[in-house]
Write a structure and sequence with these properties.
- This protein has 2 domains: 2-17 and 231-421, UDP-n-acetylglucosamine1-carboxyvinyl-transferase, Chain; 20-217, UDP-n-acetylglucosamine1-carboxyvinyl-transferase, Chain.
- The chain is built from 12 helices and 24 strands.
- The chain has helices at residues 20-32, 46-57, 91-102, 122-130, 162-170, 189-201, 233-245, 264-271, 304-312, 333-344, 375-386, 407-413; strands at 2-5, 13-15, 35-40, 61-64, 68-73, 84-86, 108-111, 134-138, 141-145, 152-156, 178-183, 206-210, 213-216, 226-228, 249-252, 276-279, 282-285, 294-296, 317-321, 347-350, 355-358, 368-370, 392-395, 418-421.
- Strand 4 (61-64) and strand 5 form a beta hairpin.
Length: 422
């Protein structure tokens, strides 16, 4: 799909879609519980549909309604209806599933598309081989065989928190207790906290015995229940930055007390001298004159692309540090944003772990952007396009279906002109 985004002012109010991170976790927990659960406020993005399909293969009965799921869980992992589990392009799905599906104690093959199967999985490979289990990552697939056992797990804290969360879903179902020791620096701690919050909601005991050690009792059972998915701060970031650079906007549908790591967007905006205030279920963000600042992405890497746009249209220089993990996402997001923003004339450079941007408040636009098959690149470039003097086209804009299929519809609702072509 090609999306042509025109310059223009946004206005009014936008309701942020539900958190993909929380929906993944809720669907997995409810599917493992004995009994019927209801998950409200679910958006059926490509990633979420992938997790639903995977949990169905373990035997969960999942009925989709317009905006909620009715899930009859399995209570105990005893079988897998499919030998091959397709994870599409969802890194969360793949890394959450590997330890869980091992408990079937049979050969399981995971596949995907895009860059998914190229993303690092050495953490699990080491764990499986240390336990004498089979783990083969080759020819665009990962195959495992053998059931993960409880015990002690020592993980580096500067790799994806998805590995820790994946273990947290599976280890309560093992016979013996487990500990996960996370070595410093412990990055993306907030995502681990979200997993533990969801586990507690569904009756699982897992707690920090010290700041870097999680203790998990063995032989536990998930309990069914109801859960309402909160709004997604990673998606709010696109509209909050749009408002800061374009025109006043109310962004609604989120909790002020959320534990999501990407809530850091509000702190970052404040440091950049963007004006906003809390309103019921959201924020009123004012058109401001953002200034350059130092941004640390260690705990909120998904904010990287839109913060490159914020920096490009801010006054002064911005240094985005601890950004290295952006290079192993759906695209190399540092390289992608550097390539596309340079088309506008943005002064941006990077090294392996840092991005440096000298901002300006005016760019001509009229360029052809490439989406790099990455939903967050598409949405970030769309925000940039609204601020240029001439409309820009985004080729491969269908990538938004991965996480936010209604993104362009929401842009149109708040007054931005968008034309789409297949």
């Amino acid at each position: 799909m090609i999306a042509k985004v025109f310059p223009g002012k946004c206005k009014g109010k936008v309701t942020i879609p539900p958190s993909k991170s929380m929906a993944h976790r809720a669907i997995i927990c409810a599917s493992l519980a004995k009994g019927i659960s209801r998950i409200d406020n679910v958006a059926y993005s490509q990633d979420i549909l992938t997790t639903i399909d995977g949990m169905r293969s373990l035997g969960a009965e999942i009925i989709k309604h317009d905006d909620f799921l009715e899930i009859t869980g399995i209570g105990k992992i005893t079988e897998c209806k499919q030998q091959e589990i397709f994870c599409n392009e969802s890194g969360s799905t793949l890394r959450f599933f590997i330890p869980l599906f091992s408990l079937c104690n049979k050969r399981i093959v995971f596949s995907g598309k895009g860059r998914l199967m190229d993303r690092p999985q050495s953490v699990y490979e080491k764990i499986f081989k240390n336990q004498g289990l089979s783990f083969q990552h080759e020819n665009g697939t990962i195959s495992i065989e053998g059931a993960l056992q409880g015990g002690e797990f020592i993980l580096d804290g500067d790799v994806s928190s998805q590995f820790i969360s994946g273990l947290l879903f599976a280890l309560p179902l093992c016979d013996k207790p487990s500990t996960i020791v996370i070595k410093e620096p412990f990055e993306s701690r907030s995502y681990v906290n979200l997993t533990m919050q969801m586990l507690e909601h569904f009756g699982i005991e897992a707690e920090f015995s010290d700041p870097n050690t999680i203790y998990i009792k063995g032989n536990q059972e998930y309990h069914s229940g109801c859960y309402c998915v909160e709004g997604d701060f990673s998606q709010l970031a696109f509209f909050a930055c749009l408002a800061a650079l374009n025109h006043d906007l109310e962004v609604c549908g989120v909790h002020h007390n959320s534990q999501q790591g990407d809530k850091a967007i509000m702190r970052i905006l404040k440091h950049a001298q963007v004006h906003f205030k809390e309103i019921v279920n959201g924020y009123a963000v004012a058109k401001s004159d953002p200034c350059g600042t130092i941004i640390d992405l260690a705990d909120c890497p998904d904010l990287g692309p839109i913060l490159c746009v914020l920096a490009a249209f801010s006054n002064g220089s911005t240094h985005i540090k601890n950004a290295g993990r952006l290079r192993i996402k759906e695209s190399d997001r540092i390289a992608a944003m550097e390539c596309e923003l340079k088309k506008l004339g943005v002064r941006i450079r990077s090294d392996e772990n840092d991005i440096y941007i000298d901002g300006s408040t005016a760019y001509e636009g009229g360029v052809k952007f490439d989406a790099h098959n990455d939903h967050r690149i598409v949405m970030s470039l769309a925000v940039a396009a609204t601020l240029c003097e001439k409309p820009c086209t985004i080729h491969g804009a269908e990538a938004v279906r991965k996480s936010y299929p209604q993104f362009f519809d929401d842009l149109i609702r708040i007054g931005i002109e968008v034309e789409r072509y297949e």
